[in-house]
Write a structure and sequence with these properties.
Elements lengths: L9 H8 L12 H12 L1 H13 L5 H24 L2 H4 L5 H24 L6 H17 L4 E2 L4 E3 L5 H15 L2 H14 L4 E3 L9 H18 L8 H7 L1 H23 L1
Antiparallel strand pairs: 1-2, 2-3
Helix pairs in contact: 2-4, 2-6, 3-4, 3-6, 4-6, 6-7, 6-8, 7-9, 8-9, 10-11
């Protein structure tokens, strides 16, 4: 006698129809992701060398600025690489933004202001002029809305204290400590004010190319100031101030345009 055909349950049928699930693809560029994180973290080595020079008995601010310039170069390169190589997906358990913020606070704020204190480029007591900048910048770094990447802005003065310190040393050599001190207080106030400054790497078109190209030329000019620092040639000093003026005027223009567009909508 023929046996009755075996009937499959609906569960068995469902299992037969289900296609095997493919294994998830590994995160893209894991090795590249680690490279970018280590590149970002290497900025702390430049920070260490800058502090070592500040602590030396015969501090040479030119060497400090050279190490800080290297940190700026690293900071300018690692962000575009991180976005290009999708570092967040490649190494998700390491937060590159945290590394970046720590290194940036050291090299853009803490060490330049420490140099101002060490060289006595602000009036006594030096800490009274520097403390507001330290605290204001720390609040700026902790502000989750400080980097407005979608619109290409920083909210508040973006803690370019490394650049300020370089010009402060020149101002001190010419006019004494009061101008650098008052400038530090003014920029500390701007750090926590609702004003916007262009984010160079994310500047809106068609301004991104001139902003980045201008920044490159300006960096070269700043480096040319160092051999005769703090008494550079007047013409070279004037030329180095063109880009900061352009940057401030462009930031004010684009900020005003953005506010007008927001109010119109």
């Amino acid at each position: 006698m023929w046996a009755r055909p075996r009937r499959w349950s609906s569960d068995k049928c469902d299992e037969a129809r289900v296609k095997p699930v493919a294994e998830p693809a590994p995160p893209p560029g894991r090795l590249l992701g680690w490279f970018v994180h280590l590149l970002t973290a290497s900025g702390v080595l430049a920070a260490f060398q800058a502090v070592a020079e500040i602590c030396a008995p015969d501090t040479d601010p030119r060497r400090v600025f050279a190490w800080l310039a290297l940190a700026v170069l690293i900071d300018a390169v690692d962000g575009p690489l991180a976005r290009r190589w999708r570092v967040k997906a490649a190494v998700p358990h390491i937060d590159g933004r945290t590394i970046d913020d720590i290194v940036d606070y050291l090299t853009f704020t803490f060490i330049p202001l420490l140099l101002l204190w060490r060289m006595r480029w602000v009036p006594e007591p030096a800490a009274a002029w520097i403390a507001p900048a330290l605290v204001a910048s720390l609040m700026g770094f902790a502000n989750t809305g400080a980097k407005q990447e979608s619109s290409g802005f920083f909210l508040g003065f973006p803690s370019y204290w490394n650049v300020y310190a370089l010009y402060a040393g020149i101002a001190f050599a010419r006019w004494g400590p009061w101008l650098p001190g008052l400038g530090a207080l003014a920029l500390a106030a701007l750090t926590v004010m609702p004003v916007r400054f262009v984010y160079p790497n994310l500047a809106p078109p068609p301004w991104r190319t001139p902003v980045l190209a201008g920044a490159l030329v300006w960096t070269v000019l700043l480096l040319l100031l160092l051999p005769a620092y703090p008494h550079p040639p007047a013409g070279l000093l004037a030329a180095s101030l063109v880009y900061p003026a352009f940057y401030v005027v462009l930031s004010a223009h684009l900020d005003r345009r953005l506010r007008s567009a927001s109010s119109a909508s």
